[in-house]
């Protein structure tokens, strides 16, 4: 790790007036600094900022510095979000990590994290060794010739499914951005991962009220039961009335370069019986436009099966 200056602003205005890299839980930033993937000269410890609190009075509002463990344990949090948080990391990490930091975490691609290797995300124009190399864990959706790395956040998948927004504060004032539009697929600029502008800071996560989101879940498939990132995951919420799907929300993780909203699957579910056959037919739309590589083609069948599993789980009492 290289030498850096550390300061601790106590107000949002002070943080925005300073130039540096924000540090919250540090569960991603510190690791990348140790590897020399990130080498900030000035680090701003923002843990003293008033960006905490969970409000469920009308929808859900979460301060950006709330810890994952506390959010998961809150009784007013939708099940898909709580479950995604519980499955995201060990208890120790969930106690340290903040929701804002989790949404901003960098890919776990081993080539990105190895400074001896080229990587378009780390050094634009150097190439993507994952494409001809080891890519079993990598994306089949939202990829490009420049990058096939998956987005690592579990809770971002659940939040995207539930139409979450994030509140941003910056030198030019405040703005609200739909989380699904915040993340960017790699295209020709894989180093541009999101729509965070220079000097901006996530201050709050907002999820609109959706009463039937109580019927939601998050299913994560991985190589081992814990301490592992998703090979494939699905966040679903379903409104079933008289055995018919009235509405649905579906998003996937572990298979795309960003948290991947599956609107075609949602549309195929609406108006259909809440049965395994209907779920399987709708879930087949999940891989529309997929571009698998030799080692990750199994995700073409794993993703629909994961969605069906999640749908069956969340509708068990209404079928």
Structure description:
This protein is an alpha+beta fold and 319 residues long. The chain is built from eleven helices and twelve strands. Helix 4 (79-86) packs antiparallel against helix 7, helix 9 runs antiparallel to helix 10 and helix 10 packs antiparallel against helix 11 (299-314). It is globular. The relative contact order is 0.13.
Give the tags:
single chain; CO_DH_flav_C; five-stranded antiparallel sheet; alpha+beta; Enolase-like, domain 1; 12 strands; FAD-binding molybdopterin dehydrogenase; oxidoreductase; 11 helices; four-stranded antiparallel sheet; 319 residues
Which radius of gyration do the C-alpha atoms yield? 19 Å
Number of strands: 12
Q: What structural category do the secondary elements indicate?
A: alpha+beta
> What profile does the largest beta sheet have?
5 strands, antiparallel
Nearest-integer average pLDDT: 95
What is the number of helices?
Answer: 11
* Percent of residues in helices: 10-25%
Q: What is the third-level CATH name, the topology of the domain at 211-314?
A: Enolase-like, domain 1
CATH architectural type of the domain at 211-314 = 2-Layer Sandwich
Provide the CATH superfamily of the domain at 211-314: CO dehydrogenase flavoprotein, C-terminal domain
Strand order of the largest sheet: 4-5-8-6-7
Runs in which pLDDT lies below 50 for 5 or more consecutive residues are none
Q: Assess the beta-strand content as a share of residues.
A: 15-25%
Q: What pattern of helices and strands is seen along the backbone?
A: EHEHEEEHHHHHEEHEEEEEHHH
- What distance lies between the first and last C-alpha atoms, to the nearest angstrom? 55 Å
């Amino acid at each position: 790790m290289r030498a850096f200056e550390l300061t601790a602003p106590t107000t949002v205005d002070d943080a925005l007036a300073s130039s540096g890299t924000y540090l919250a839980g540090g569960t991603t930033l510190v690791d990348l600094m140790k590897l020399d993937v990130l080498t900030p000269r000035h680090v701003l410890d923002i843990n003293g900022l008033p960006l905490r609190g969970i409000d469920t009075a009308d929808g859900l509002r979460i301060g950006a510095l709330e810890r994952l463990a506390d959010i998961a344990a809150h009784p007013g949090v939708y099940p898909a979000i709580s479950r995604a948080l519980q499955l995201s990391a060990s208890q120790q990490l969930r106690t340290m990590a903040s929701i804002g930091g989790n949404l901003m975490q960098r890919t776990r691609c081993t080539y990105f994290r190895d400074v001896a290797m080229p990587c378009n995300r780390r050094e634009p124009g150097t190439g993507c060794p994952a494409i001809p190399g080891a890519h079993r864990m990598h994306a089949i959706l939202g990829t490009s010739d420049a990058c096939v790395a998956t987005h690592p956040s579990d809770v971002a998948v659940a939040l995207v499914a539930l139409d979450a927004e994030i509140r941003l504060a910056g030198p030019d004032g405040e703005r609200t951005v739909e989380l699904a539009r915040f993340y960017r697929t790699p295209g020709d600029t894989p180093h541009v991962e999101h729509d965070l502008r220079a000097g901006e800071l996530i201050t709050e996560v907002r999820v609109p009220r959706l009463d039937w989101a109580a019927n939601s879940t998050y299913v994560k498939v991985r190589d081992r039961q814990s301490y592992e990132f998703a090979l494939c995951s699905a966040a679903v919420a379903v409104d079933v009335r008289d055995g018919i799907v009235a509405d649905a929300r579906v998003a996937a993780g572990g298979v795309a370069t960003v948290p991947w909203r599956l609107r075609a699957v949602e549309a195929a579910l609406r108006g259909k019986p809440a049965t395994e056959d209907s779920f399987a037919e709708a879930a087949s739309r999940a891989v529309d436009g997929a571009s698998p590589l030799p080692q990750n083609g199994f995700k073409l069948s794993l993703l629909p099966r994961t969605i069906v599993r999640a749908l069956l789980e969340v509708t068990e009492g209404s079928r």
